[in-house]
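User: My advisor, Dr. K., asked me to get a structural model of this assembly before our group meeting. I'm new to this, so sorry if the format is off. These are the inputs:
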Amino acid sequence: MLEAAWLICAFPLAGFAVLLALGRRLGEPRAGWVATLAMAGSFVCSLAVFASLMGRDPAERRFVVTLFEWVPAGDFSVDAGLLVDPLSVTMALFVTGVGALIHLYAVGYMHGDGDFSKFFVYLNLFAFSMLVLVLGDSLALTFLGWEGVGVCSYLLISFWFTDEANATAGKKAFITNRVGDWGFMLAMFWAFGALGSVRYLDLFGQADSLSSTTATAIVILLFLGAAGKSAQLPLYIWLPDAMAGPTPVSALIHAATMVTAGVYLMVRVNPLIAVADAWAPDVIAWVGVATALFAAGAAMAQNDIKKVLAYSTISQLGYMMLAVGTGAYVAAIFHMVTHAFFKALLFLGSGSVIHALDGDQDMRRYGALRAAMPVTAVTFIVGWLAIAGVPPLAGFWSKDEILAYAWDASPALWVVGIVTAVLTAFYMSRLVFMTFYGEARYGTEVHPHEPSRLMTAPLVALAAAAVVAGGLNLPFTKDLHFLGAWLEPSLFANEAHLSLGAGAQWLLALVSMAGAAIGIAGAVAVYLQHRLPASRVEWPAAARAFYVDETWTRFVGGPGRRAFEGVAAFDANVVDGAVDGVGRSVRAGGTLLRRVQTGFVRSYALLTAAGAVALLVWFLVRTSF
Amino acid sequence: MDLAGLSVGWYLALSVVLFAIGGVGLLVRRNPLVMFMCVELMLNAVNVAFVALGAGLNDVGGQVAVFFVLVVAATEVVIGLALVVAINRRRSGATADDVSLLKG
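Assistant: The format is fine. Below is the predicted structure of the whole assembly, which you can bring to the meeting.
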């Protein structure tokens, strides 16, 4: 069955091809069903591959399916191959599983849209690219998927492109990601220069022969790419704007799957991080935790429901990077999976709410929706408790594992992490209270209602997953560490070892539970009981995300622009000048030499004779002296 | 070394004289037919040199080379005369300098 791993990618690709050719003719809702079935088929294949991988001995759970030679160029050759190992299969499972549910939801959500079939063309193309990204057996193939998801992200953010703000948001996402891609490409070139291959297994096999400086450079450059894709400081700026896309896109691409690609990449290259200097993982951990705190702060004061969730996603991605930086790779993947469940759930729930309120995204005009939308409200509350870190829901277990490793690495990291956890509980409670509780603040002409079954069924499924997913990796005994044991072959024993005793772990867990309680209690006091005016906690600076975006704009618009114009002028004058100069000098030389070609046969004969005489003289001179 | 009473040097001198006459004629005359005859003269001057040196050095290679030159000269004449005839059909009395359309 492992040889058939290519089917995982083939299903969405086939869906994409069918919809591209016949999408308009299939129309609504059949185009959506084709796309959803493609994802479901891909999920079934992933399950089958997972099952047959489980049947193998843990040491042999690594398998490369070579499909064809992709780039044959002399010594340099890249095969298009799929690396099937526990890590990539885990990714494939949740990408296809959550993806299928979101496709199903989108069939309901996109109802009545003029470009219904086009939406699913993009969604399937996205799923294909994402699967190439996670299953690719080399940096080059991962990069192909990396760019593919970037393109799909651009297409889907600006899906309603007639509104200029949406088109601009798409461009912003694409261009910001190019900064990160630049790091990815340099890392790839560097790895090839140092080891002569970009295949993961070659890189990992020879990682020990790398000098620590080279490994550090590769890791930092890859992290630059990851920071772009996974929206870390300072490249996160595109993600809040990306909420301009339809809500299923926000759920699938900008919460559950694509933005986790950076975390996946860093986990994937763990043997390189192991060789790198010690400060490289520290940089990753600190950038991660700083992003987590910063984005949680910004989420405190957002009024757009999707913006809150967007900053929340950035914050949670920061946690995952923190886990990567502290060597807690299992915790990173664990949190990625649980986050995929509850964040997709929260986004889809927010989609239902937006749908019910005729497209209004401002929470100040929400309130008391619990009665009108019971299913959405209950599932949303499950997602809220999961992300806030309330046991025994999924988010508690995964976040706590990350925080335990953070404490182990440096208590300072843990302190920032726990403050972020309190803020998370606070802003998510704020969102829930403003939306589902209190008094109704929407106009009388709006009649909120529960969406169709198509949209509530994925909510229920994701809510169930968000409740139980913590069971994947329970901390009590080693036997319950299912995900850890499963991922072990992909981590090459690079996973950090927790030196904390059981008592200390309990203590940390209690502190984080108390943190969640404080956050929720604070939000109750402010937003339910109104003991404190909301304006006291919603700082204007936080609402503007601490002016990072403005700083970027000022930099890129001012000195940045001048610098880039200088580079462009250098390119136009010096580089192009050299190339054009060669062409011009050939032309000028030709104009001069053309006079020799008179057309008179006798002048040619004269030149020939002169040449013969000159040769004769040359030989004579050479032989006689 | 003598050939029929004369040393090889005389034959070579004759060859040089003939070659020079041919070369100068080629350069100064504009009538294509005469230019042709000059080319033939130059080729045959070379032939004389070949034969003389071949006999003088007792090497049959010189005579063999002459056959090659003759064959090449014959083909050259066929093509060249055909060109001359073709040009004369279009423009009778044209000189070599009139046909200079292929200038750069």
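One thing worth pointing out at the meeting: Chain A is about 70% helix and 5% strand.

User: Perfect, thanks a lot.
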